[in-house]
């Protein structure tokens, strides 16, 4: 094989790899939306892009409606049939930490993180539209009294949120990176934190 | 790597892979075989032990996770709640094949140590992670209530 043919093959392989890495799971950065001159429209577009993370199974599974979390890429009911309990960390005698340790455990396939818990009921996202989630996120009565700056901090730096990009096992990662989500949320807040209609 | 364990009040040193499941260490290294291997993926509860008083599926925890913590297996249960559970289990003849029962007893005891007078809902929630293929669930629930009555008496 000639050097030029080898070089072409290498380029084709590298291009294919880059295309697959930048595929459906990538997130568009805030700069992608600068061309939208209407600020509210740009803000809504930024949130819609961030919504690809917020409505991903890695996030929705831990923002359940009702007592029981879901799991898996298809969001099926958690097995065993555990409940959130009085403090969102499991029932008396059946705490989340009975199975979930401080890190993903490959031997059993059980995911883990030191802060493993579900979001409070007021922060339930399942069954909600992206617009409803957006309004909920901004509402201090439902978001745990958080300011928009605190919301950004949670999205951009909370390590349990960050688990969504390193879920282990056969679980799909959330799109993009946590830093990209943080940049989108920062730009959304900067542009007025407008919410999509639905 | 050496990991200091405390199992049933006895201090031990574990030399080996820190990612080894705690269940393996309890059964193979320490020789306490009352804790059972069921599913290996934290679905059945047969391997339940207590760590610092809370239930833990020992198949789903690396031994490094319990370093310097108090591990209690079925062989080491000795609390007042545990004795009430053991008596109730015998009185009501709860066990059928028995394979899951050490895990059931560990979960029931942990519940009663935290909540001596549990409701049916409390029992359902606390025992949800313990499967019994002989379907002794109704006797388990009755025995927990019986143990609860002993504790109140």
Short recap of the structure:
The complex is a heterodimer of chains A (198) and B (153). Chain A is mainly α and 198 residues long. Chain A is 38% helix and 4% strand.
Strand content of chain B: 15-25%
* Total domain modules of chain B: 2
Q: How many individual helices of chain A?
A: 7
The run of helices and strands of chain A is HHHEEEEHHHH
Q: Would you give an account of this structure?
A:
The complex is a heterodimer of chains A (198) and B (153). Chain A contains seven helices and four strands; from the N terminus they run αααββββαααα. By secondary structure, chain A is mainly alpha-helical. Chain A has a domain at 30-74 and 119-190. In chain A, the strands form two sheets. Chain A has a two-stranded antiparallel sheet. Chain A has a two-stranded antiparallel ribbon with strand order 3-4. In chain A, a hairpin with a 2-residue loop joins strand 3 and strand 4. In chain A, helix 2 runs antiparallel to helix 7 and helix 5 (148-157) packs antiparallel against helix 7 (178-190). Chain A is globular. Chain A starts with a helix and ends in an 8-residue tail after the last helix. Mean pLDDT of chain A is 90; it is low at 7-24. Chain B has a five-stranded mixed beta sheet, with helices on both faces. In chain B, helix 2 (80-91) crosses helix 3 and helix 2 (80-91) crosses helix 5 (137-152). Helix content of chain B is 38%, strand content 15%. The relative contact order of chain B is 0.17. Chain B has 153 residues and is an alpha+beta fold. Chain B has two domains: 2-76, Ubiquitin-like (UB roll) (Roll), CATH 3.10.20; 80-152, Orthogonal Bundle (DNA polymerase, domain 1). The chains are: A mainly alpha (198), B alpha+beta (153). Chain A binds chain B through residues 79-83, 85, 91-95, 97-99, 101-102, 105-110, and chain B through 19, 21, 40-43, 45, 48, 54-57, 59-62, 65, 107, 110-111, 114-115, 118, 122, 125-129, 131.
């Amino acid at each position: 094989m000639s050097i030029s043919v080898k070089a072409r093959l290498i380029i084709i392989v590298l291009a294919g790899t880059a295309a697959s890495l930048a595929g459906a799971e990538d997130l568009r950065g805030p700069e992608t939306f600068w061309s939208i001159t209407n600020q509210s429209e740009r803000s809504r577009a930024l949130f819609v892009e961030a919504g690809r993370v917020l409505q991903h199974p890695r996030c929705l599974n831990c923002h359940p409606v009702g007592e029981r979390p879901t799991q898996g890429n298809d969001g099926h009911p958690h097995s065993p049939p555990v409940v959130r309990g009085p403090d969102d960390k499991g029932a008396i005698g059946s705490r989340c930490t009975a199975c979930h340790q401080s890190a993903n455990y490959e031997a059993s396939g059980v995911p883990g993180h030191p802060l493993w818990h579900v979001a409070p009921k007021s922060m339930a996202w399942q069954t909600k539209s992206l617009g409803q989630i957006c309004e909920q996120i901004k509402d201090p009565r439902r978001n745990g009294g958080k300011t928009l700056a605190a919301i950004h901090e949670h999205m951009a730096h909370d390590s349990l949120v960050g688990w969504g990009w390193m879920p282990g096992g056969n679980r799909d990662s959330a799109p993009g990176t946590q830093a990209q989500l943080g940049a989108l949320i920062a730009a959304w807040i900067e542009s007025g934190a407008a919410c999509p209609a639905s | 790597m050496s990991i200091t364990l405390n199992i049933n009040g006895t201090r031990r040193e574990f030399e080996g892979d820190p990612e080894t499941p705690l269940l393996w260490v309890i059964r193979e290294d320490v020789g306490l075989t009352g804790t059972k291997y069921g599913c290996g993926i934290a679905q059945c509860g047969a391997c339940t032990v207590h760590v610092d008083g809370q239930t833990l599926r020992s198949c789903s925890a690396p031994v490094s996770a319990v370093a310097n913590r108090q591990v209690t297996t079925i062989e080491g249960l000795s609390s007042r709640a545990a004795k009430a559970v053991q008596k109730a289990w015998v009185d009501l003849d709860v066990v059928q094949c028995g394979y899951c029962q050490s895990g059931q007893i560990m979960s029931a005891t942990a519940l009663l140590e935290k909540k001596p007078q549990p409701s049916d809902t409390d029992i359902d929630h606390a025992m949800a992670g313990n499967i019994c293929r002989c379907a002794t669930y109704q006797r388990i629930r009755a025995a927990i209530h019986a143990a609860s009555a002993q504790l109140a008496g």
